[in-house]
Write a structure and sequence with these properties.
The protein is an alpha/beta fold. It folds into 2 domains: about 350 residues, Alpha-Beta Barrel (TIM Barrel), CATH 3.20.20; about 110 residues, Sandwich (Immunoglobulin-like). The chain has 9 helices and 27 strands. Helix 8 runs parallel beside helix 9. It starts with a strand and ends with a strand. The site of alpha-L-arabinofuranose (AHR) has 10 residues, from loops. InterPro entries: Alpha-L-AF_C, ASD1_cat, GH, Glyco_hydro_b. Pathway: Glycan metabolism. It catalyses: Hydrolysis of terminal non-reducing alpha-L-arabinofuranoside residues in alpha-L-arabinosides. Homohexamer; trimer of dimers.
Length: about 500
């Protein structure tokens, strides 16, 4: 039995909606084909952005979208991606498959995509191979309203008014593909580059420094010690896979029970990582002004057989849904420090929301989790006390049931529960205190096989259904979760 006390009158903080953010890189078929098909495409589009994908993404309320990378960001030169498309410079995307990047999707197209999505842009600048001037001029081009070389050039390129831009990253993975730097060296460069990322007019930039890889706590220590006064956010990257990063991460669809457990135990590892990085951040920033920005997370499996290894195309099963549900619960529960997170990557790459094949598309189980969880966006986090069963995984174990709870501005309580066991159900008692429960309803996303997924032949195999397997007594709500299930309860 699993027991939870939900304190509806203890609301430690608001869950920043940006925790439900996304990341789209110039990688494989994410931007080209997935989001952008161009105005001349036979695939229905609005100014080059495909309508079917945008309409589906609008349903999950993407609050913020990170672009253009990833590793691509540190070799992207934004000036090559503005002006008439036919005259834009072609380049080689050396990180991702060595394909030709024609720069048809650039700054104007990205800002237009964000407008169509109703998402805020989060642009990642180039430190690894770019200059201070180039970064500074990008912000001027985007946000300056007066007369200046960059603002005038923007107008020549068809955009009169400046855009509003809040989130700006100063490089990506500067410990790796973004320049292979030491933290001391990057901290100095960060301070130099960010100096020239200016606030023009009323536009205020929220500056995000390149943070640690996984458990590189030393990187966090140095960045916070040397540069926390100059940043608003520090990024963290952590991907989930059962295997070995270089030797083989494991298949997305063809996996064993022990790989199931290992994947979910590694998803839970996010909780430990956040606690440890946050402890270091607390030392230098006890007020929690600086956000920990998990701007790359999600599953990373071996590519689908027969696809370009540099395109990172993988299928998505109910296992991915449970990784997403568990991770989002972890983020909600740490939303005092986690101010934004961006799952990698929106379409056709890694743990995608949507897969496309020509003019066809499907919604993945992960998409459905984001759709179910959108009720947590900007809601007040509720304190939850838990007593839970565990699942053994090798020498260690992890919680069988993951939970988070929030209260919306309209006063509705939402409780998201994930049963991570692949064969056993989970009974859960929910004791909601400080609230008079008058009605309860639920939705569920569940699988019957560990690798249940949506395919182009069977697009609705995994989709949310009505959930009724709960019972109300005067004191509690008794819930019976089936195996491999994500449930969202709404309590009014
Ligand atoms: O998301 C794929 C890649 O993973 C990104 O480009 C990079 O930042 C990370 O290593």
């Amino acid at each position: 039995m699993n027991s939870f006390i939900i304190n509806a009158d203890i609301t430690p903080n608001t869950i920043n909606k940006n925790i439900y953010g996304h990341f789209s890189e110039h990688l494989g078929r994410c931007i080209y084909e997935g989001l952008w098909v161009g105005e001349d495409s036979e695939i229905p589009n609005t100014q080059g952005v495909r309508n079917d994908v945008i309409q589906a993404l609008q349903q999950i309320n993407i609050p913020v979208l990170r672009w253009p990378g990833g590793c691509f960001a540190d070799e992207y030169h934004w000036k090559d991606g503005v002006g008439p498309r036919s005259q834009r410079k072609r380049m080689v995307n050396t990180h991702w498959g060595g394909v030709v990047e024609n720069n048809h999707f650039g700054t104007h197209e990205f800002m237009m995509l964000c407008e169509q999505l109703g998402a805020e842009p989060y642009i990642c600048g180039n430190v690894g191979s770019g200059t201070v001037q180039e970064m500074s001029e990008w912000v001027e081009y985007l946000t300056f309203d007066g007369e200046s070389p960059m603002a005038d050039w923007r107008r020549e390129n068809g955009r009169d008014a400046p855009w509003s831009l809040t989130y700006f990253g100063v490089g990506n993975e500067n410990w790796g593909c973004g320049g292979n730097m030491r933290p001391q060296y990057y901290a100095d460069l960060y301070k130099q580059y960010q100096t020239y990322v200016r606030n023009y007019g009323k536009n205020q930039i929220y500056k995000i420094a390149g943070g640690p890889n996984v458990d590189d706590f030393y990187w966090t220590e140095v960045l916070m010690r040397e540069a926390s006064d100059y940043m608003d956010g520090l990024s963290l990257h952590y991907y989930t896979f059962p295997g070995d990063f270089w030797e083989g991460k494991g298949s997305a669809v063809d996996f064993t029970e022990s790989e199931w457990k290992l994947t979910l135990s590694r998803a839970w590892h996010m909780d430990q990582l956040i606690q440890k990085h946050a402890t270091i951040m607390d030392k230098y920033d006890p007020e929690k002004r600086v956000g920990l920005i998990v701007d790359e997370w999600g599953t990373w499996f071996d590519v689908e057989p027969g696809t370009n290894p540099g395109f990172l195309y993988q299928q998505n099963t109910i296992r991915d849904a449970l990784v997403a549900g568990t991770t989002l619960n972890i983020f909600n529960n740490h939303s005092d420090r986690i101010h934004m997170a961006n799952i990698a990557q929106t379409v056709n790459v890694l743990q995608a929301m949507i897969l496309t094949e020509g003019s066809d598309m499907l919604l993945t189980p992960t998409y459905h989790v984001f759709e179910m969880y959108k009720v947590h966006q900007d809601a007040d986090l509720l304190q939850v006390g838990s007593e839970v069963e565990t699942i053994t995984c090798g020498e260690s174990s992890f919680d069988k049931v993951s939970i988070s709870a929030s209260k919306s501005k309209g006063g509705v309580i939402h409780i998201s529960l994930c049963n991570l066991h692949h064969t056993q159900g989970a009974a859960a008692d929910l004791d909601v205190r400080g609230f008079t429960v008058s009605r309860v309803s639920g939705r569920i996303l569940a699988g019957s096989n560990m690798n249940d997924r949506n395919t182009f032949e069977d697009k609705e195999r995994v989709k949310p259904e009505l959930f009724t397997d709960f019972e109300r007594t005067q004191e509690k709500i008794h819930v019976q979760l089936p195996p491999m299930a994500v449930v969202m309860l709404s309590i009014g």
